[in-house]
Structure formats: structure tokens, C-alpha cells
Amino acid sequence: MALALRRGPRSPAGGIDGDPLSAQLPFGVTKRTAAFVATGVAAYLAALAWTIPASAVMSPTPGIGAIGGTVWRGHATLIDGSRAEWRWAPLRSLTGLGFAADWTIAGSGNDLAGVAVIGMNTTTIEAASGTASGAVLAAALPYLHFTCAMPLQVNIKRIRIGGGSQGAEGEVNAGSGLCAPRGGGAATLTPSMVLSLTRVGSDSRILLVPAGQRRRTLAEGSLSEDGKLQLRVTPEGSQVLPFAAPAGGIGIETSF
Q: SS3 breakdown of the chain: % helix, strand, coil, rounded to 5?
């Protein structure tokens, strides 16, 4: 007796003509339609992320004015009219495990460039070199209680703040200039000075001296790998820099 095999009905999961993307999902939606919708949503979200304005994550400070462009490629105006620009560095972001950007500051006597990497709780500045003005100091440290107008020659190898392995290496040469309390007051003529940041064991040594007079210490301190910062303005430093410390000097301790 011959047996006849009969095909059962095609499973809806198989799709039409064997096309898996034509298979239906719940509510009568095919996999092909769902794939098109998912691709469109992903493209829309990517476009939104790519056009996030820089002003959404940055705010003006006493040292930074107008902010423009996007997070990935933006710019800001410093108080002296110079322009800071940055551009996202995707490969360096992957290797540095953070948002990395190449940046420049130009105009009004500034010609400075370097690399920044911002992590979850860390900020790293690397390979920063060039000439700068006191406006860059105001932008980097906007809440200092004094402002300075002086030329700076910057050569920073690395500064890392936050997390572990904190430290600083490099040198800044400051020409003579004028500094005054931010809230107003008499300006002080400052001599040429050298700020050196040197790695010593697990700590970074901070030393400020008059140019060509390494034995006269105006300020000194250290930054440990775990973020403990100690700074001391010496009695002589308080005479040369009266806007920075009261007579007799001052010591400061804090942590990052």
C-alpha cells in the first residue's frame, strides 16, 4: 500500500518565498518593516547626538564668554577676545577610555594647542605647548580671586586631575606683568617667574620661583596620586605676590 506524504501549511515564521524578513511579527508587522523602522530610529538618534550643541554641556564662566558649535566640534570666546576651538578625536577616545579632543587657542597673543581627555571622573591635559596670555589662566582657573595680564610660555607634558594616578609634569614661564584682585584693588607689577611641575616618586612637586633665581621660592607644593594637593605661599612670595596671599604667607590643603 503506497503512502502519500502531504505538506502541511507553511509556517508564518518562514515568510513568503523563503524570505525571512517577510515573516510577520505581532500586530501584522513584518520583520522587514521592523528593520526599516529600527534603522530610521537609530539614524535619527545618531543625528541628534551628532548635533548636540556645545552650550548644552558647557556654561559661560568668569573666563569664558560665548560658546558655539557642537560637542564634537565647537568653540568658545575667552575674555580677551581669543578663540578656543576643539575637535573630537575618536581613536584617542577609544584608547583613552573617555571623550578626547584636540584643542587650540588662538588670537590676542595666544597660540596654544594640546589634547584633552575627559573620563567619568578624570580630566587629563597632555602635550599642551605654545604661548598664552593671562586670559587662558582665567579660563582654566575661573574662580581664582585675582587676574593677571602677562605673557606665558607653556610646555605641559601631562596634568591629570581626578581618579587615580593624578599628577603633573611640565613648565610654564611667565613674563613680567600686572596682577590685581578680581573684585578690584591696586595692581601689582610681577617679575618674570617659572612654574615647574616635576614628578618625584609617586607625587608631583610644584615650585614657583623668580626667573633665573631658583633658590628664591615664592610658592611650593605637591600633588599626590590620590589627589591630595598641598600649596604654600612663602613669606617672600606674599611680598612679591600680595594679591595671592596675606603677609607672612599661607598654606592650603585640599583634595580632588
A: 20, 45, 35
State the DSSP code for 72: S
Backbone angles phi, psi at 127, to 5 degrees: 50, 45
Is residue 256 classed as helix, strand or coil in its secondary structure? coil
Task: Give the DSSP per-residue string, 159-187.
Answer: EEESSSS-EEEEEEEE-SEEEEETTS---
In degrees, rounded to 5, the angle at the alpha carbon of residue 120 between the alpha carbons of residues 95 and 66 is 100
Phi, psi of 61 (to 5 degrees): -130, 175
List pLDDT tens digits, range 138-185: 888 888 889 899 999 999 999 999 988 899 999 999 999 999 998 878
Can you list the positions of beta strands (E) in 136-245? 146-149, 152-161, 167-174, 177-181, 188-190, 193-200, 203-210, 219-224, 228-233
From the list 213, 251, 222, the residue with the least C-alpha distance to 234 is: 251
DSSP state for residue 60 in the 8-state scheme: -
Q: What is the pLDDT of residues 12-60, one digit of tens each?
A: 544 545 555 455 555 555 655 555 555 555 554 454 455 788 888 888 8
